[in-house]
Amino acid sequence: MIKVTDITKSYGSRENRFPVLKGISLEIKDGSFAVILGASGAGKSTLLNVISGLEPPDGGRILYDDTDITLLSDQALTKFRKETVGFIFQQYFLLPNMNVEQNVKMGADLAGNHQYKAVIQAVGLGEMLHKYPAEISGGEQQRVSIARALAKNPKVLFLDEPTGALDERTGRQILDYLSGLQKEYGFTMVMVTHNRNIAEMADTVIHMNSGKISEIDTRETQKTAYEIGW
C-alpha cells in the first residue's frame, strides 16, 4: 500500500514561494487503478512526481508499505525507483537511434529481466522489434514506452496523460492494453489525466482542486476502454 500523509510542495524563491501541494493525504491499495483528476494547475502532475519519488516533498511522509521514501538518501531513492516504480508520460522519450527491442531492453536491463520480449508481444509489437521510432506511429511509440516501463517488472506504474497526444481510436487501444496488462501482472497503476471519462475505468478516483484533494471516490465496478465516452 502507498500511504501519503500531509504532503506539501512549493516552488519559487524564498520571497516568492508558490504552494502547489497543500497538505495532501491519501492511501492507494496494492493492485488498484487510481486516477487523479483536476483542472490544469491543480497540482496533479506534481503529486504524481512526489509520490513516485521523482521530486522530494517539502514536508510530509510517503510510505510504500513500511518504507518511508522521504527518509531515503539520494542513492537509496534511486535504487527504490529502479526496483519499484515505472513511468509512462505523454511524451514517449524513446531513443531515436535504438529500435523497438533495444528501447524496451533498456527498461528490462534495470531489473535484470531477460523475458522482456514477452512484454513486447503483450503490447502487440512483436513484428516490429527491429523498427526505429521514426518508422512507427505515435500510438505504436506509446506502446513501446509502455513495454519499456513494464519490462522493469514495476510494483507501481505511474502515468502522466499517457493518451493526451493520441487520437480516440489509438487512445482507447492504449488504455485497453494497460488495463489488460495490469490484470495480467497485478501491478498498481496511478494515472494523471484531464479525461474524466477514463476515471470510469478506475477503482479509485482522486479529485484535486488548487493543491488539495477535494474528494476521493471508490468504484465497485469499472468500465472497459471501449465502454467509456471520449
Report on this model:
The chain is α/β, with parallel strands linked by helices and 230 residues long. It is 30% helix and 27% strand. It has helices at 44-52, 74-84, 100-111, 116-122, 138-150, 168-185; strands at residues 2-11, 18-28, 33-37, 59-64, 67-68, 85-89, 156-160, 188-192, 204-209, 212-218. The strands form two sheets. The protein has a six-stranded mixed sheet, sandwiched between helices. It has a four-stranded antiparallel sheet with strand order 2-1-4-5, covered by helices on one side. It is globular and about 50 Å long.
Cα shape: globular
Terminal CA distance reads: 31 Å
Question: From the alpha-carbon coordinates, what is the Rg to the nearest angstrom?
Answer: 17 Å
Structural class: alpha/beta
Major beta sheet, strand line-up: 6-7-8-3-9-10
Question: Sheet bearing the most strands, described?
Answer: 6 strands, mixed
Mean pLDDT: 93
Give the number of DSSP strands. 10
Q: How many helices does DSSP assign?
A: 6
Q: What proportion of the residues form beta strands (DSSP E)?
A: 25-35%
Secondary-structure element series = EEEHEEHEHHHEHEEE
| Sequence stretches where pLDDT stays below 50 over 5 or more residues | none
- Determine the fraction of residues in helical runs and give it as a percent range: 25-40%
Sequence-ordered SSE layout with sheet pairings:
Blueprint (H helix, E strand, L loop, with lengths): L1 E10 L6 E11 L4 E5 L6 H9 L6 E6 L2 E2 L5 H11 E5 L10 H12 L4 H7 L15 H13 L5 E5 L7 H18 L2 E5 L11 E6 L2 E7 L12
Parallel strand pairs: 3-8, 3-9, 6-7, 7-8
Antiparallel strand pairs: 1-2, 1-4, 4-5, 9-10
Helix pairs in contact: 3-5, 4-5, 5-6
